[in-house]
Amino acid sequence: MTFYNGVFPFYPHERRKWVFSVDTIIVIIVFLVFALAFILIIPGIRGKARLSWICRVIISLFIGVVTVVVNFTADWEVGSVNSVTTYKSFSNSTVNADIGVHVGLSGVNITLKGNPINQINETIDYNEQFLWSFGSNFNEYYFDGLQKGLPNPILYVAEKFTQNDPCGIFSQYRISSHYASACMWVAFCSWIICNILFSMSVFIYGAYMILVTGAFMLFSLISFSTVKNVTFCNIQFGSETLKTTFGGSFWLSLAVGLLCFAIGITLIVLNWCVPEKLKLFFNAIEDDEDSTSRSSDNEHCHNNLAFEHV
């Protein structure tokens, strides 16, 4: 590759902004549709049961959407650094930019944003995704980046995650992320079973299943956090070091997992101490009273018919 009339011989590519993945948006929309459908039927729920249903449905949908969405987010582990660094190969031009790393369960997003965004007659605003999920080849994404002529900072960070890099972090991230994602999907399945059991008024078993949901969410976090046990090679940009910390998806999953444990333990205690109040919360007592009232009305009607016959 050589220069020709001062133009860099790099392949053109699309600059993408890192906001939400399409999968994340689809999942959120699906759960919003369920929430909207519930809002439409709220007026048909009688009395105090309305408040109970609102509380149960909102909390349940929140837990469900989190267990699914975090599989597609890219902020389980994040880090960024500001540095003056070379921009592209075969050039001495330097830029002041923020280099960011956003690690998810399926891969890593590497961002490069100029400070200011317009420098050396270019708009420096990159977001490149490199996947390591099963069925994807991380090295192919890296080689595609080389062919496209991505900026040096992005390629430098991506090289640290390749299979042949001496750091050896690729296998650890790939395996940890795979098991973390698997645990999250199991948590989602147990969440579905939990809702089925609650709808059948089998409260104690529903409480057990929500504990299972929380347990698998915590297992997912433990699996992902094992990457911190690996000696992470320093990613140096001059005198600055790019360091990563757990991101929003990690802490959100932890919060929801603890919420599941709190709900499950509370329901078990209520079922043991005051089962009548638990039935009242799930509207089971009202159903029993209605059925008793209907049976008494039927008996009264039967007696009247018998008296008229006599």
What does this structure look like?
There is one protein chain. The chain has 310 residues and is an alpha+beta fold. It has helices spanning 22-41, 49-69, 138-148, 152-160, 169-199, 203-225, 248-273, 275-281, 284-309, and strands at 77-86, 94-103, 107-119, 122-131, 235-237, 240-242, 244-246. Strands 4-3-2-1-7 form a five-stranded antiparallel β-sheet. The longest helix is centred in the middle third of the chain and has 31 residues, at 169-199. The chain is elongated, with a radius of gyration of 28 Å. The termini are far apart.
Using only C-alpha atoms, the radius of gyration works out to: 28 Å
| Count of extended strands | 7
Largest sheet: 5 strands, antiparallel
The strands making up the biggest β-sheet line up spatially as 4-3-2-1-7
Encode the helix/strand succession as letters: HHEEEEHHHHEEEHHH
Structural class comes to alpha+beta
Q: What overall form do the CA principal axes indicate? A: elongated
In angstroms, what separates the terminal alpha carbons? 110 Å
Helix content: 55-70%
Compose a concise summary of this entry.
By secondary structure, the chain is α+β, with helices and mostly antiparallel strands. The protein is built from 9 helices and 7 strands; from the N terminus they run H-H-E-E-E-E-H-H-H-H-E-E-E-H-H-H.
